[in-house]
Amino acid sequence: MSMSFVFVDGPNNGSCISLLGNNRSTVPVRKMPIVGDTGVFLLTGGYAIAQTHRADFKSATPLLDAML
């Protein structure tokens, strides 16, 4: 899975963090590495912890909680 978070307000306005990794929805809590960043996050590292709260598989719409 690849996902980018773009900040459009506040002190991080214009900055971006990108995640890349295996996002198996059957695992309750997942860790995914931060592989790209811009703005105030330039040259940072780390990982995100993702947890699925709810998923509607008919419409393919998940509700995720991610802590960076």
From TrEMBL:
<dbReference type="Pfam" id="PF03018">
    <property type="entry name" value="Dirigent"/>
</dbReference>
<dbReference type="GO" id="GO:0048046">
    <property type="term" value="C:apoplast"/>
</dbReference>
<comment type="similarity">
    <text>Belongs to the plant dirigent protein family.</text>
</comment>
<comment type="function">
    <text>Dirigent proteins impart stereoselectivity on the phenoxy radical-coupling reaction, yielding optically active lignans from two molecules of coniferyl alcohol in the biosynthesis of lignans, flavonolignans, and alkaloids and thus plays a central role in plant secondary metabolism.</text>
</comment>
<dbReference type="InterPro" id="IPR004265">
    <property type="entry name" value="Dirigent"/>
</dbReference>
<keyword id="KW-0964">Secreted</keyword>
<comment type="subunit">
    <text>Homodimer.</text>
</comment>
<protein>
    <recommendedName>
        <fullName>Dirigent protein</fullName>
    </recommendedName>
</protein>
<keyword id="KW-0052">Apoplast</keyword>
